[in-house]
Amino acid sequence: MKKIGFLSFGHWTPSPHSAVRTGADALLQSIDLAVAAEELGADGAYFRVHHFANQLGAPFPLLAAIGAKTSRIEIGTGVIDMRYVNPHAFVEDAGAADLISGGRLQLGISRGSPEQVIDGWRYFGYEPAEGETEADMARRHTLKTLELLEGEGFARPNPRPMFPNPPGLLRLEPHSEGLRDRMWWGAASDATARWTAELGMNLMSSTLKTDESGEPFHVQQAKQIRAFREAWAQAGHDHEPRVSVSRSIFALVNDTDRAYFGINRENSDQVGLIDSTRSVFGRSYAAEPEQLVKELAQDEAIAEADTLLLTVPNQLGVEYNAHVIESILTHVAPELGWR
């Protein structure tokens, strides 16, 4: 059994060929798609966060709005760039959004990826400390965020406060119990996956990975997941971890599907450079349901994961993306034993 959700990059463009032409369109349609996905029986609504781009940049208002409009579906990010984050503001905003949703947030965070501008985090007021890299800064922000999510008091109370204080040191409010266990790290390498496990975060692995062996993407990703689980067991955490993988999967069940995705199919992995690091990008899947089942059954990483996030072409609109999700839930997932 697997949890199956969608991952939206939240693009918008003023092009007449796009169903999502403004930031308002992207936000409101994201809410509508989450509601539709819940009604279809999907398990998660996840959103990519990018700054300085026509994409979803401020996650917590969106997550809170979805939380208020839904009742069951998990609501998450994939991922928030921790180079841009004030840990204290993050914990307050996340706590509020999680309480609004009834404890359904699943927050994917990471050290980030190449952005639209040079060192965009500097415009947010952040600088690496002496001797730090920007990745080090992201991890420092992460460690502080995880500490604050524990909910322990740390701030000295004013002896003459405006309102009465509880005894002892004060914590950030509102505090949402259990959110610390629902934090995920987007790991590209095996070493980072092990670091994720040591810190007790869930593993979020997407459609690209550092190329560490030259093997097919899904094989390397499966090995990364196994390394994560081994490190988790060695760390002795008292609960089971979760692992998600992302895939572009399209079941071709009507003429519209075939027009969009039935031609010029990319059936193999791609290799490229991310920040001068050789990376392997996983293939997309698009086929008639029977063939799709056969191909997906060979994907070792999907077999290892407990959560599958379907990347959706959000600019094609809510109705079509709901169809994409429903097609997988109806024609593919049962045949593979995912549901």
From TrEMBL:
GO terms for molecular function: alkanal monooxygenase (FMN-linked) activity. One of its GO terms (cellular component) is cytosol. Residues 9-258 form the Luciferase-like domain. InterPro entries: Bact_Lucif_Oxidored (IPR050766), Luciferase-like_dom (IPR011251), Luciferase-like_sf (IPR036661). The keyword S-adenosyl-L-methionine does not apply. Keywords: Monooxygenase, Oxidoreductase. This is Alkanal monooxygenase alpha chain. The gene is luxA_1.
